[in-house]
Amino acid sequence: MHTAGPLYRSTYQQLTPLGESASQQAYWLLEGIVGISLMDVVLDKKIALSAQQEQLLQQAIARLLRHEPLQYVLGVANFRGHDFVVSPAVLIPRPETEELVQRILERHQQQHPLRILDVCTGSGCIALSLAKELPGASVWATDISPEALAIAEQNRQRLGVEVQLLQADALQAPFPAEELDVVVSNPPYVRQSEADKMQPNVLDWEPHLALFVPDEDALRFYRAIAREAAKKLKKGGWLYVEINEAYGHEVAGLLQQLGFGQVQVLPDLQGKARMVEGILG
């Protein structure tokens, strides 16, 4: 029989090489594997730790010390209050992307009918969250990676929503639906030259296919998506994209050239340029 306090302290001490994040990661790890809460630690609650849990905990600590992201270690990442299955086949959902979803909800919550396409869906966090929170909407989602789509299908089943998941190359394939009201995408946007500035837990573990674009054509996904959106959106339909803060105005200019109006570069909660939106005139 263990108690929560010493178990937390032991886990924390083993994770100290991770620096300032060690304390929080120790809590999350114990919550995810053992099922104990912060209050359990404070109250030093008695914990019946099975041999299997103890083995899983030690394996998880070893993985974290190799800079594997906690979300991959636990197999889930929280996004808008739901746990999404994640693996190295998909990017870990970010809080900034939650803001993108919130922006869409604020504008389209009362719109019926509503047809939405999510391009480069990855784990499906955008498309599935919109389907969950806009239950009357028709939602499609595409990705080039069959492994990512398999993860998205797991998440679709977990959330119990209807979303059509389709394999497609965002750079070449036409959209699978027409007369759309919303097109949204969080495409690859990290320039190859930025790789040396990235943390090991991102660079060494998250899928490069979903992260990087060549420096000489950093807008390639925005160009392809915006061109196709200009064909498939209804008049008055909206395009929303997450961006690299380094080229927000370039993406905005691209949308304007393709006939989008009311184009805005929007900041995230950290004040960084993170989204571009525009309406098809």
Automatic annotation (TrEMBL):
GO terms assigned for molecular function: nucleic acid binding; peptide chain release factor N(5)-glutamine methyltransferase activity
Gene Ontology biological process terms in this record: methylation
Residues noted as binding substrate in the record, renumbered to the chain: N186, P187, P188, Y189
Keyword S-adenosyl-L-methionine: yes
Binding residues for S-adenosyl-L-methionine: D143, N186
Keyword S-adenosyl-L-methionine annotated: yes
Taxonomic superkingdom: Bacteria
Reaction equation(s) it catalyzes: L-glutaminyl-[peptide chain release factor] + S-adenosyl-L-methionine = N(5)-methyl-L-glutaminyl-[peptide chain release factor] + S-adenosyl-L-homocysteine + H(+)
Swiss-Prot/TrEMBL keywords: Methyltransferase, Ribonucleoprotein, Ribosomal protein, S-adenosyl-L-methionine, Transferase
Domain Release factor glutamine methyltransferase N-terminal: 12-75
GO cellular component, one term: ribosome
A Pfam family recorded for this sequence: Methyltransf_25
EC number of the protein: 2.1.1.297
Methyltransferase domain boundaries: 116-186
HAMAP family per the UniProt record, alphabetical: RF_methyltr_PrmC (MF_02126)
UniProt cross-references to NCBIfam families, sorted A to Z: hemK_fam, RF_mod_PrmC
Record's function text: Methylates the class 1 translation termination release factors RF1/PrfA and RF2/PrfB on the glutamine residue of the universally conserved GGQ motif.
Family as reported in the entry's similarity comment: Belongs to the protein N5-glutamine methyltransferase family. PrmC subfamily.
Protein name: Release factor glutamine methyltransferase
Organism field: Cesiribacter andamanensis AMV16
Source species taxonomy: Bacteria, Pseudomonadati, Bacteroidota, Cytophagia, Cytophagales
